[in-house]
Amino acid sequence: MGQRAVAFWVCAEEWLSGHLGFFGVVQERRNKGKRSLILQFLSRCLAPSPLTVLKVRKMFLKVQLPWNVVIPAENLDTKGLVLQKSIIVRLLDEFATKKATKDLGYLLAVTTLDHIGEGKVRQHSGDVLFPVRFSCISFKIFRGEIVEGVVHKVLKHGVFLKCGPIENAYLSSLKMPGYTYTVGENPVFHSDKQPTIEKNVVVRVIVIGTKWLEAEREFQALVSVDGDYLGPLDKES
């Protein structure tokens, strides 16, 4: 797949209001669990907080990408014509395995199939290669943005949060002013003025750095609660 892509900002509300269309429905059936987690994360981001809504608009990109889709000979009809459905199914399968790219972030969902080029037959196999262009939604966080994550690991020197598709957003104890570590069977970070930071608590943080891991094809992030309106959220919020 080529690395060039045309990208422009898209508001997350547009996606939730049905922008995914047919392709989103197909992909939801194929990857229901993952999409459910993403929608839960979006619902947290779009909670009635002006600060959060302002920042979340930058995370979601609408991008158009080129791709080569190979259709096996057995999926062609007797006249040698490929069904559009076969191209869509194959594209969604390959798209799901791509996971993420350094430039675009995590690839979440195909929205439209914009163009199907002329097929080229492979001599030895009889398979047909179709160059296509499609639009999709991706997720990428940037330094200075406000996000919300769920604590899934508590260590002496900090905690790890899950933030949408990002599994490891690290909040160092040095970036938790007023908090002290309390050891125990279920270790926590305690503050006299704010709610406790512990496992399964939702924390609003600001991103202070990101790192792309090529081998794992994923991002890591450094975050902080040192700022206004940041920190663990009350259960009713």
Task: List strands and helices in order, with pairings.
Blueprint: E1 6-9, H1 12-19, H2 21-30, H3 32-45, H4 50-56, E2 60-71, H5 84-98, E3 100-101, E4 105-116, E5 120-121, E6 128-139, E7 146-155, E8 158-163, E9 166-172, E10 180-182, E11 188-190, E12 202-213, E13 218-224, E14 231-232
Parallel strand pairs: 9-13
Antiparallel strand pairs: 1-2, 2-6, 3-4, 4-6, 5-6, 7-8, 7-12, 8-9, 10-11, 12-13, 12-14
Describe the model.
The chain is 23% helix and 40% strand. By secondary structure, it is an alpha+beta fold. It folds into 2 domains: 60-139, RNA polymerase Rpb7-like, N-terminal domain (Dna Ligase, domain 1); 145-232, Beta Barrel (OB fold (Dihydrolipoamide Acetyltransferase, E2P)). The strands form 3 sheets. Strands 1, 2, 3, 4, 5 and 6 form a 6-stranded antiparallel sheet that branches. Strands 7-8-9-13-12 form a 5-stranded mixed beta barrel. Strands 10-11 form a two-stranded antiparallel ribbon. The longest helix is centred in the middle third of the chain and has 15 residues, at 84-98. The protein starts with 5 loop residues before the first strand and ends in a 5-residue tail after the last strand. The model is unreliable at 1-39 and 41-57 (pLDDT under 50).
